[in-house]
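We store amino acids, tokens; thus:
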Amino acid sequence: MTRLSSTHSTQSIQSTETSSHWAARSLASVWHPCTQMQHHQAHPPQVIVRGQGVWLFDDQGRPFLDCVSSWWTNLFGHANPRINAAIQEQLGRIEHVMLAGLTHPPVVELSEKLSALTQHHLGHAFYASDGASAVEIAMKMSHHFWRQTGQAQKNEFVCLASSYHGETLGALSLTDVPLFRSAYESLIKGVHTVMSPDARQAQSGESADDVARRAAQALEELLKSRATHISALIVEPRVQCAGHMAMHSPLYLRLARELCDRHGVHLIGDEIAVGCGRTGTFFAFESAQVWPDFLTLSKGISAGYLPLSICLSTPTIYEAFLSEHMAQGFLHSHSYSGNPLACSAALAALAIFESDQVLAHNLSLAHHIKTAFHWTHDDERLEHSRQTGTILAFDLKPAWAQRHPRFSTLMHQHCMAQGLLLRPIGETVYVMPPFVIQEEEVSQMSQGIQMALDLSLASSDE
């Protein structure tokens, strides 16, 4: 079977242990996330020992092109020398200090820069370590705000169909993916779920804007009847990533903002996966020229280096918590809030955005991806080939999906054999590579995925 070759060195890494040995030890000691561990008995986890640029390498020097940015986190490649240097410099100063009652330059600088990127519509960054925690913070702030302002009955939340916002109990309540929430239904609070503006729902003659208007109408009907009890609507702007990469028109964001304002409901923008330039603008909400009341970031904000998440809020939200009484403060904390090393990585990433004109570069990258994957529009086995910024996705048609129920597993395995790290979401195949991927590597990625698709659909499911 043909493997993709790397433009980087594939020199074997000296190790006292073999890949099979490390995989066996992993199976005996590590509980891997989002994984049915029994499947790993037949297909052990791949052992990765280093990375360089868009490539990951095992201990034999075999390369794997990171098509999904290591779960959508990596922006500027693995072992980026500028980010490495920033972390090493900070490590010589202070590795961590509690943020309660203390502060440090990296967290101040990062907070200021993020607020400036929102034209100061949002600010007063609150820090945590992962995306779900940032969503929990936004939920708690919203609910607590209404309580502070004499409207404690506003304690309900609204999410979109097929939404995903994390797997802690609060965030999971806003996640409309049965695979993740069904086992924990008795533990989580019910929420309102409204129509997604997913453009794939377009009826004959409809545009993505038309679908957005229908979805906004469904939201309006709910708000008319329940707004006095609703705290906030949460939206993944432009792309619902774990929801099979559902993409929608920015018109929906404008309509949702208008409806939330009219009915006195907060709007939470979950940009954990789609922020930091993925959709073409630094913040996905910028494409709609509106801002949410809360904006959550994680994944790419530290360029894939260290756990970091942030919740930005409006001045109105922040000021509602100012009081002489401790109980009216926002009493939420994380031990590693605003970690200096993570903040330094984020500052280095923002510096790269500025010095390398990354958003302009990403316009060219998006074009290269579109061109390389033109074949997805003509393949009779596929449908809904779509793209927003540097995120491209397509779906296996239902008839083919029914004939190949193990499609996602087979596709992952065949891609690994081709030297590609790809993790389909059910019948949806997507790419979200680091921004430093080269045009030649985009072509390699496309060719390898096409080959893996052929092999997966030719494989027996017996």
